[in-house]
Structures are given as structure tokens and as C-alpha cells.
Amino acid sequence: MFLLAEYISTTSSFRKPTAEIEQRMEQVQKNLHTNETRLNDLRVNRGKLSIENATENSHIIDRLDKQIESCRKDISNAPVELSILEENLKASQQQTAAKQMEQLLSQQKSCAGSMEAISKKLVKALEISHDLNIQLTTATTRYVALQKQTNVDVLMKPTCRPSEQLLQVVYETLKAELEGSKPQTARCPGQPPYVRI
Questions:
Q1: Could you tell me how far CA 79 lies from the centroid of its own chain?
Q2: CA dihedral 164, 166, 172, 174 (to 10 degrees)
Q3: For the chain, which has fewer Cβ within 10 Å, the N-terminal or C-terminal residue?
Q4: How far apart (Å, rounded) are the C-alpha atoms in residues 179 and 100?
Q5: Can you tell me whether residue 184 is helix, strand or coil?
Q6: What is the pLDDT of residues 20-79, one digit of tens each?
Q7: 4-53 and 58-150 helices cross at what angle (nearest 10)?
Q8: How far apart are CA 171 and CA 168, in angstroms?
Q9: 99 vs 94: CA distance, rounded Å
Q10: 84 in the Ramachandran plot: left (φ > 0), alpha (ψ -120 to 50) or beta?
Q11: What is the distance between the alpha carbons of residues 20 and 157, in angstroms, rounded to a whole number?
């Protein structure tokens, strides 16, 4: 039988690629925010250096310009990467859903197979029970007829064994059904009365 832990484990394995994409998207957005803040700081510093002395600070300004350009590229590339990641995420989610459905259908087929096997066993057991019931009813009818002729109830003999006591319970029930009377529970001398279920 398919267990809940197995289902959770299977689902988690399906979600792994999706989780990786989501993690990457989160990192890109975090980097975008960091670069935007850094770009603003670089521009402020460059402005200060230009105001103080553009000539003396030219080498520092050049370095800041390169950093500013790098930040701009990263910022402009972020939306493109996010768009690609969103498409990949959508595809991954669809694939995950398809795999989960395939797994669930496989489990359902397995359950259906088990149900079919159990049903066949149950039908066979019912057929056997029906046949035995017919045989026992026939034997009981024959016994009642013979008892009327002999006027002796051999099932009530004092030396009856537990198996015969059980047979007596079955006999009384079937006899009552055949004669339309209330069944009487029989017991051997010294034996406690049987309690009907």
C-alpha cells in the first residue's frame, strides 16, 4: 500500500528542480536590489569626487565609471534572466504536475488491482459459503426427518464434545428457521450455556 511518507518523498523529489529555479529567482532579485543601491552610491561618490577635483580624482572617477557601467549591465540583465527563469519555472511546474499525476495514476491502478484480487477471493469465499450452507441445510432437513422417525436426538447426548455442541447451536438455528419456531440453546450437563452472538 502506498504510504503518505512515500508520497511526500516522491513529491519532494519532483519539486527539486522547481525549488532550485525559485531559489535562483530570489537570488537574482536580491542581487538586483543590491546593484541598484550600489549604483546609487557609486554615482554619489563620483559626483563628490568631480566636484572636489575632477583632474586629481580622474583615476578614481574612471574606476567608479567602470563599476557604474558594470552595475548598469547587471541591472539591465536581471529582468531578462528573471523572464527566462519564470518560463523555466512554469515548465518545471507543469512537468512536476504531470509526474505527480502519473505517479497517482500508477498508485490508483495498483489499488484497483488489489481491490480486484480481494473481490475475486471474496466472491469465491461467498460461493463456498453458499454451497456449504446448502449442504448444511440439506443435512439438517434430513436429520429432522430422521429424528421424527427415531424420536432420538443424537446431538443432545450427554457425552457430546465441544465440536458437537457447536454443531448443536448451528442445528438449533437452522431447525428454527425450517420450522418457524424460536431456537433453543442446548448445552451438555455440567457445561455452561452458550451465549449466542
A1: 40
A2: -110
A3: C
A4: 61
A5: coil
A6: 999 999 999 999 999 999 999 999 988 988 888 877 888 888 899 999 999 999 999 999
A7: 170
A8: 5
A9: 9
A10: alpha
A11: 82
